[in-house]
Design a protein that fits this description.
This protein is an alpha/beta fold and about 280 residues long. The protein folds into two domains: about 10-200, Spore Coat Polysaccharide Biosynthesis Protein SpsA, Chain A, CATH 3.90.550.10; about 210-279, Alpha Horseshoe (Serine Threonine Protein Phosphatase 5, Tetratricopeptide repeat), CATH 1.25.40. The chain is built from ten helices and nine strands. The protein has helices spanning about 20-35, 55-60, 75-85, 105-115, 160-165, 175-185, 210-220, 230-245, 250-260, 265-275, and strands at about 10-20, 40-45, 65-70, 90-95, 100, 120-130, 135-140, 155-160, 190-200. Helix 7 runs antiparallel to helix 8 (about 230-245) and helix 9 packs antiparallel against helix 10 (about 265-275). It starts with 11 loop residues before the first strand and ends with a helix.
Length: about 280
């Protein structure tokens, strides 16, 4: 499963799903074309757009670009899956059409794969958050204690990993990346680059995963974690905080208590349980 170190330039397939984002797509495509790493293919999946997306793509004459058009809007999971199915690279990267790569993003990711253990199935990084008008809001720093799910636009993943864990679940309309990453983490490890290598733009049509979607996905994967008491407790704690955020205090309290029972060494779970009665 490890990349051959003598193969210094494995093909990387960059999958860009897009829907009515002609205004930002050019920026995304240019950020891939301008990569310092050149052995790329760029697969753009137009998920039934009604704007001038196709015209924007046709302006690029780079032979590495492949344009695929869905006749109807089928959702981001379907669009990403179409890109994966039509890709040829040993490594697959994702880029949302309103985001942007730093010039060395792919090069730095490939370098990790060429030198890491075969156990590493995915490489990710921190990212900048920027308003559409260009104002920088700050760097989102990944922390296992605070953020379980790195931004998909920061991912580069081995093809063989996707073949083992499966494609994106097309039944999930929002939060499909969380579901995918949970399945990934059950079987593989990932490497994290501290340096931000992606700009994440906040525009009016950004679709954020609702807390309710996060809760449903956490609940889905909790049973599979029972054998790992510490990890099980940690996820119960996250679930409790999600419930607390939406005002479901009883459910939050239940999660904090179960987390403490599962892993009583961490008194923080008990403290959160007791504090919930003050609300």
């Amino acid at each position: 499963m490890a990349l051959n170190k003598r193969q210094r330039s494995p093909l990387v397939s960059v999958v860009i799903p897009t829907y009515n984002r002609a205004y930002s797509l050019k920026r995304a495509i240019e950020s891939v074309i301008n990569q310092t790493y050149k052995n790329l293919e760029i697969i753009i999946i137009d998920d039934g757009s009604s704007d001038n997306t196709e015209e924007i793509v046709s302006d690029f004459k780079d032979p590495r670009i492949q344009y695929i058009h869905h006749l109807q809007n089928r959702g981001i999971s379907s669009a990403r899956n179409t890109g994966i199915k039509n890709s040829k690279g040993d490594l697959i990267a994702f880029l949302d059409s309103d985001d942007e790569y730093f010039p060395q993003k792919i090069e730095k990711n490939v370098e990790v794969f060429l030198n890491c253990s075969a156990r590493i199935g995915l490489v990710s990084s921190n990212h900048w958050v920027i308003r559409e008008e260009g104002k920088k809001l700050g760097i989102v720093k990944f922390s296992p204690k605070r953020r379980l799910f790195p931004l998909p636009s920061t991912w580069v993943i081995r093809r063989k990993v996707i073949e083992k864990i499966g494609l994106f679940d097309e039944r999930i309309l929002v939060g499909e990346d969380i579901d995918f990453f949970c399945r990934f983490r059950r079987r593989f490890s990932f490497y994290f680059i501290e340096q931000p290598l992606v700009n994440k733009y906040h525009s009016q049509d950004n679709i954020f995963c609702s807390i309710e979607n996060v809760i449903s996905i956490r609940e889905k994967y909790l049973p599979s974690l029972r054998s790992e008491r510490r990890l099980y407790a940690r996820h119960l704690n996250y679930l409790g905080k999600d419930y607390f955020y939406i005002g479901e205090i009883k459910e939050a309290r239940r999660c904090f208590l179960k987390a403490f029972i599962s892993y009583p060494i961490n008194l923080g779970y008990l403290i959160k349980f007791l504090r919930s009665y003050k609300k």
